[in-house]
Structure formats: C-alpha cells, structure tokens
TrEMBL record:
Organism: Salipiger bermudensis (strain DSM 26914 / JCM 13377 / KCTC 12554 / HTCC2601)
Presence of keyword Transmembrane: yes
Record-given protein name: Sodium/calcium exchanger membrane region domain-containing protein
Highest taxon, organism lineage: Bacteria
Principal localisation: membrane
Membrane-spanning ranges: 36-60, 67-84, 90-107, 142-168, 180-203, 215-235, 241-264, 271-286
CC annotations in GO: plasma membrane
GO terms for biological process, alphabetical: intracellular calcium ion homeostasis
Stored Gene3D superfamilies: NCX, central ion-binding region (1.20.1420.30)
InterPro entries: K/Na/Ca-exchanger, NaCa_Exmemb, NCX_ion-bd_dom_sf
UniProtKB keywords: Membrane, Transmembrane, Transmembrane helix
Cell compartments where the protein resides: Membrane
Length: 287
C-alpha cells in the first residue's frame, strides 16, 4: 500500500514535478506555477469531463467525504498562500510536509479497508492502464525494477527540459506570456498520463477510479509539485495566476465537489458542463 500511494501514485504526476521544478530553476515561474494550477483546472474540467461523457462517474462516499474535501481545502489554502506571500522554501517545506502527513493518515485509515480513497484510486487507474505498473504483492528482485525506474526518471527529466525550453520558445513565437503557455499547453501536456489513465478507467466502467484519480492528482499537484517547486526554486507566483487562475481553480474544485455530492454521481450532463467550462477558460486565456 505504501509503494502504491507514494511511488506508483507519483508516477503520473512526475511530468508535472519535473517540468515545474525545471521551469522554476530556469527563472520561468509563469510556466512552473501555471503548470501546477493549470493541471488542476484541466484535471477537473477536461479530464473529469471526458471521463463522465464516456461513462458516468460513480463517486464513493468515502472519497467524497475525506479526499474531495481535502482537495478543496488544499486548493483554497494554496490560493491564499500565493496571494499573501512569495512561495519560499519555508512554504514549500510546509506543503511537502502536509502531503507526507496526508499520505501517512491515508495509509493508517485504509489499512485493511475494503475500499480505498482517492490516492488508492490514483494507483488503481495507473494499474488499469498498464497492469505491469500495479504494486507488487510479494517481495522480489529489486535490481531490474530500480534500473527501469531510474531509466524512466532520466527520460522524464530529459523530456521536461525539452518541454520547458519549447514552452519558452512558443511564448515568444505566439507573443503571449509564459504564464499562458504554462496554464494551457504545458499543463495539458503534463496531464496526459492522468487523461489516459482516467479514460481507460472510464472505458472499463470504473468511474469511481476516474474520480479518485482526478482528486488524488490535484492533491499531489498542489502539495507535492507546488511544494517541491517552492522548496527548490523559490519565487513569487505570477500576479495573473494569483488574481484569476488560482481563484478559478478553487471555484472548479467546489463545482466538482457539488456535482459529486448530488447523488454521488457525475453524469454525462455534468461532463458536458465541465468540458464547456474548459473551452470557455481557454477562450478567456488566449488573446
């Protein structure tokens, strides 16, 4: 369970982590935090919307009561933090510590439970996409898995470097801010693993897993990726994100919770609303 909630759970969030940290180190906070906030908005409006259109999402009461509430609280806390102070190393350490504490709490609560919460569903979504990525149920040789893990990490780091440099070039070429590129192209690009795993879960009629995947990813993004970025490359969140995108992230998080609470189900009608909201958001961002 610990491996599933940490290493495997972070698997689909690794592109966001590498990209945001590299963008922060390159002096591009618009891409770094645009990626974090934009990925959360895309997870809710785009990914949950597409998943609901494919197959209505059945929401587990435990995931709604605990994990979706945590997601909403974390989104609001991040927005307030970005508004009030620069995200320095102390703030980053606090965010990462909160994630560690949350995972420890989930592990204690879910040990022996029949149904897991959002972090468990995030792991299950990845396992549905590729059964070979399911957490091992018995100890085995570690050399090959470690080699594969480090090779995969090296490829993600290399890809993140290309993505950041390409995003900066796109911003200059389109004559738009790096923040807009971070919120759109970079955010959707790094959210592709979540999109694929949620679509596969929906196609396999496991809508509850699709919901948990979105909620778990959003918690990881804000606490883990946002915290690590602030810890390694401290900077102030760009004003555009603070004033508009971060409050919008809180608003769409609340919308998802309200949809989920109405009958513990997100149907195709709600999916259309979510996708329409994402199209409107992209229309507002691009000049």
């Amino acid at each position: 369970m610990v491996i599933g909630l940490t290493l495997v759970g972070f698997g689909t969030s690794m592109p966001e982590l590498v990209t945001s940290v590299q963008a922060g180190l390159n002096g591009s906070p618009g891409i770094a935090y645009g990626n974090v906030v934009g990925s959360n908005i895309a997870n809710i409006l785009l990914i949950a919307g597409v998943s609901a259109l494919i197959c209505p999402i059945i929401v587990a009461r435990s995931a709604l009561r605990r994990d979706a509430t945590v997601m909403l609280a974390v989104a609001a806390g991040f927005a307030v933090l970005a508004w009030t102070v620069p995200l320095g190393r102390l703030a980053g350490l606090g965010l990462v510590a909160l994630l560690i504490g949350y995972i420890a709490f989930v592990v204690r609560q879910e040990r022996g439970a029949a149904d897991g919460g959002a972090l468990h569903d995030k792991t299950q979504a990845l396992a549905l996409a590729d059964p070979g990525l399911a957490p091992p149920h018995a100890p085995g040789r570690l050399a090959l898995p470690l080699l594969i893990a480090f090779a995969g990490l090296a490829l993600v780091v290399l890809g993140g470097s290309f993505l950041v440099s390409g995003a900066v070039a796109l911003a200059r070429g389109f004559d738009v801010s790096e923040t807009v590129i971070g919120l759109t192209i970079v955010a959707v690009g790094t959210s592709m693993p979540e999109l694929v795993t949620s679509i596969i879960a929906a196609l396999k009629r496991q809508g509850d897993v699709a919901f948990g995947n979105v909620v778990g990813s959003n918690i990881y993004n804000l606490l883990g990726i946002g915290g690590a970025t602030a810890l390694i490359a401290p900077s102030r969140v760009p004003a555009e994100i603070v004033v508009f995108d971060a409050p919008l992230m809180v608003g769409v998080s609340l919308l998802l919770v309200l949809f989920a609470a109405s009958g513990l189900r997100i149907g195709r009608r709600e999916g259309v609303v979510l996708l329409g909201g994402y199209a409107a958001y992209l229309g507002l961002l691009w000049p």
